[in-house]
Amino acid sequence: MKALRRSSTSSSSSASSSPRAPSSPPPWVHLRSLLVASSSSSLATSGNSAAVAASASFSPASYSPHSDRGGTKSPWSRRKRKRPLSCRHWNHLFSANGKLRDGGRKFLKKVRSGGVEPDIRAKVWPFLLGVYDLNSSEAERNVIKTNKRNDYEKLRLLEAYALYDPEIGYCQGMSDLLSPIIVVMEEDHEAFWCFVGFMRKARHNFRLDEVGIRRQLKIVSQIIKRKDSHLYRHLQKLQAEDCFFVYRMVVVLFRRELTFEQTLCLWEVMWADQAAIRAGIGRSTWAKIRLHAPPTDDLLLYAIAASVLQRRKLIIERYSSMDEILRECNSMAGQLDVWKLLDDAHDLVVNLHDKI
């Protein structure tokens, strides 16, 4: 507004200083005049509007004072619009398995000649805009629809979390943690707040300084050192005692090493431990119900150490570099028994919880 006022003032002052040559108004005045003129022309009499339309449509060279609305037409008006694609016609374009017949040629021809009726645009536009392939079946489109809905929900919830926790924001790997929650929780607001609760501890995995990651890798290293000194010495020889080869397991909490259902089982047990700690349920309570392993905030790290210890013989006898161990850890997907893993992790908790 200040800029507009300045241009208006300067133009008026220049007009008063040079009456013989009035200055042209600023560009925004021209724009406003055009808008007003176009609005006024729509309210004029039919005769005046015809003249305005004629002058706007033709160049001075082609203008004839005897022309009227029935005279020379625009080239675009020579082609009559056909009937738009109707709901009935749309349904007839599909075969029994939900594919557009003839690769969608008739469909596109119909739309090109007449457009689409308003009530089916929501169904038609995804084909026109490339969301669905013209050769896709109904089953294939259902899969695409589900995947895109999940992708959208993840993006929306991750954006909401980035606003909720601007210090961490969004980082690669968060979608791995969010996707199981979206599948289970139907309501968006419940999914969001469950994710916030999940990230209360997991957020340290996404700090730029990686302090949280380094702390967790150090704990995994200490567990292996105290449980299996032979394996630890082999890792030292390979300069892999920092356990960087389990980095991915730590960041996305085993999400890529376990199946979907196994991931949910592991996370639920972890969350139960964390909930017990928040509720102040201590060691004595668990001893009474014959659960010897006390709850721990670091159950994930004991499970990661257990997965490495399960492969101790292979690592010691076959692998001579950290890269080989890293490949082995990344190839665990689908090969782990989550309940055996948890049993081994709980054994480690019982023996080492007070020493780590």
From TrEMBL:
Stretches for region Disordered: 1-27, 57-83
Location of the Rab-GAP TBC domain: 115-274
GO molecular function: GTPase activator activity
Biased composition (Low complexity): 1-21
UniProt-recorded name of the protein: Rab-GAP TBC domain-containing protein
